[in-house]
Amino acid sequence: MTDNVIVSIRGCQRDGVNGPDEIELVTPASLAREGHGRYTISYEESALTGMEGTTTVLRFDNGRVTLLREGNVNSQMVFEEGRRHLSMYETPYGALSIGIKAKSVKNTVDECGGDLEIDYAIDVNNVLLGRSKLSMNVKKDHGSKLELQQ
After folding, report:
1. What distance in Å separates the CA atoms of residue 13 and residue 110, rounded to the nearest whole number?
2. Domains held by the chain: number
3. What whole-number distance in Å separates Cα of residue 8 and Cα of residue 115?
4. Is there a domain that residue 70 lies in?
5. Is 60:40 a contact under the CB 8 Å cutoff?
6. What dihedral angle (degrees, nearest 10) is formed by the CA atoms of 107, 120, 99, 44?
7. Which among 30, 70, 100, 131 would be 20 to 30 A from 125, CA to CA?
C-alpha cells in the first residue's frame, strides 16, 4: 500500500553559540506500509533545505526511526531513544562520521498519517555539535493542490 501524503516538517538546531536555527517545510510525499507496524515516508528535498537533488526516506520500525538521504547529500541517521548510533554524512564538501543520540523519539505514524517528534544530540568524535528537534506531521493528501517551495 502506498498513499500520497502531505508532510509538514519543523526543525530546530541549537549549537550553544548562535541562536536557534529553524526551518519549516511542507511537501508532498509517499507513505508506504512495509509490514506490521513498519512504514516509510519518502520525499524530494528542495532548494529551501539546501539539499536539492536529494531524496529523503524515513523508515519507522519498532521504536527506531532511520533517515536515509541519497543524491547530492548522502547519509543514514538512526534515531533510537537512549541509544547513540554512528553514521556517515556525505556532502558535496566532504564526509563526516557523526554520532546521533536520541533523548526522545515519539512516533504515531501509521497508514492514516500521524506525528513524529525527535529530540537528539549530534557529535563528531564525541564532541557535541548541538541539540536538534525534529517535528513532523503526516496527513493523507485527498487531491489538494500543494504549491511547492520555490
Report:
1. 27
2. 1
3. 10
4. yes
5. yes
6. 60
7. 70
pLDDT above 90 coverage of the chain, percent = 59
Banded model confidence at residue 49, pLDDT cuts 50, 70, 90: confident
Query: What residues pair up with 43 in beta bridges, in sequence order?
Result: 56
Amino acid found at 125: N
Can you give the CATH number for the domain in which 22 is found? 2.40.128.20
Question: Domain span at residue 117?
Answer: 2-140
Grid cell locating 53: 537533488
Q: How much is the pTM?
A: 0.85
Alpha helices in 17-124 (DSSP H): none
> Which residue in the block uniquely carries the three cell numbers 500500500?
1
Q: Rounded to whole angstroms, how far apart are CA atoms 60 and 58?
A: 7
